[in-house]
Amino acid sequence: MSIGEMLAATVPMARTLNLEFRETAPDKAVVALPDQSEYHNHVGGPHAGAMFTLGESASGAIVLAAFGAQLSRAVPLAVSAEIAYKKLAMGPVTATATLGRPAEDVVAELDAGQRPEFPVTVEIRRADGAVTGEMRVVWTLRPNDAG
């Protein structure tokens, strides 16, 4: 099962929005939100909540790609998220997520018994390439023996 299939199977909101997981690798994740009128806002573009879910889903996809081997001993959890809406988004939009710290540094902290935190940055673009949103999600790997 691919990361996109796994997220669609385990995260109902990803299924609800019909998110398309186009690329899921440890260094980049790309997720698209098709243009769907039922998720439009008052000006006919994707609703802010749908764009937030798109960005958070892209961040989750890269976390699973980068740290999937750690799932037997830690659970990834979003700690905080910020989003800035830069330009009007119309039509389909695509989110591209990148890790803000080297994965090996995060795993080394986990190996040392710590609960590492790391940022994921996300750019949301419309079809013409314009950046319509920027997001930063801070994630942690919570060791399974932690509360």
TrEMBL record:
Segments passing through the bilayer: none
Pfam families to which the protein is assigned, alphabetical: DUF4442
InterPro entries found in the cross-reference section: DUF4442, HotDog_dom_sf
Listed Gene3D superfamilies: Hotdog Thioesterase
UniProt-recorded name of the protein: DUF4442 domain-containing protein
